[in-house]
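re: ur question from earlier - yeah i can do the single chain one, its not a big deal. heres the input i used so u can compare w yours
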Amino acid sequence: MADALRNRDHIRAMLLLGLPLVGSHLAQFALHVIDTIMVGWYSVEALAAAVLGTSTFFVIFILGAGFAGAVMPMVASAAAGGHDAEVRRITRMGLWLSLGFSVLILPGMWWSGAILIALGQDPEISGLAQQYLRIAGFGMAPTLAVMVLKSYLAALERTQVVLWVTLAAVGVNAAINWALIFGNWGAPELGLRGAAIASVIVQGATMLALVVYAALAPGLRRYTLFTRFWRPDPQALRSVFRMGWPIGLTGLAEGGLFTATALMMGWIGTRELAAHGIAVEISGLTFMIHLGLSNAATVRAGRAYGVRDGAGLRRGAVVAMGLSLVVTVGVIAAFLVLPHVLIGAFLAADDPLRPGIIAYGTVLLAVAALFQLADSVQVMVLGLLRGIHDTRRPLLIALVGYWVVGVPFAYVLGFAMGWGGTGIWFGLVLGLSVVAILLARRFLRQIKTL
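and the output i got, formated as tokens:
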């Protein structure tokens, strides 16, 4: 009976913390889904360019988001121990590192067209993708600042505001897209560039909203987060950097795997690349559910780690994995039963390429159903490992699984064996499965010492 009550408490705590995070991640991802859908309504060529542009942006973003990933468990542990000054120092330096990263990567985004052409992409599509990235690049700083502030607020269990601010951003983004992509309401018709401008405006407004809340909300004022913000803190900067760079590179390893497959699909054709982009968007949308639960697991594990509660950490891990498994079963069913509905939502009803893209994308979603379990396991265990401040060994595991197994097998199966896009996606399945197994093994070893 006591065990059942403790499990119920963990489930309640996970859901109270995790559901707003799931909602905020879904809303955040919806910003990109809305861009993809609306750009797809504009033209298939613009959609293919958006796939390249957003994939490139995401890979760079995920590298920089490593510092936000470090803020969450570090703040959770510091708050659990009652160290208010540490909470402030960690968050500030997370913002410093994120903003500095945004400045450093801007030139690469400005000249991204030449890089994409060198990687074998169609010159016309690459040129359109560069137009998108030249605008979207200026949104990297507010985007990463938003991630740091979300991590800070989540670690302090202030997840409701994150949800509501992000939901508001979705509505604003859709309205600005409608105006600037298609030239409605007297606005200029800017196509793909309009989607980029909308994203920059929305991310900037989201950042300002979270800054105001973090500075003025009752219960948060004592952290004086922005007082003398310009003052450097070398010790905290080093601490966040040491924990953050492996998180960023781990995300880059996984994000790079998906970008590599997008490039390979681009070698096959525009229709295949568009279908791949839609299938990735759908898979990514469902992944946000697991990511929100993983963030909750990171906070819960970080708090348990901060007070050295090994038993609570282990019980919480079991609950987190169980909740993620329930979601996985539902996602697999949707992918297998409703592929035409899911894919068709991204395409104009009268687009002549619609039937071919839906047929090709249906096969890809069937393969995506195979890797749902592995993908959910790896992100949940990764969140738990970050909660106990273990980030370097997971990086090595990710590099091996994604780049020694995933990318080579995607190429061999897709091209050497002639399986095309299906073979490329089976490479994704293998890479994610290897990472999931090795990360689970790592976590089981680590918790024995707590």
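The chain has a mean pLDDT of 86. not sure if urs matches, ping me
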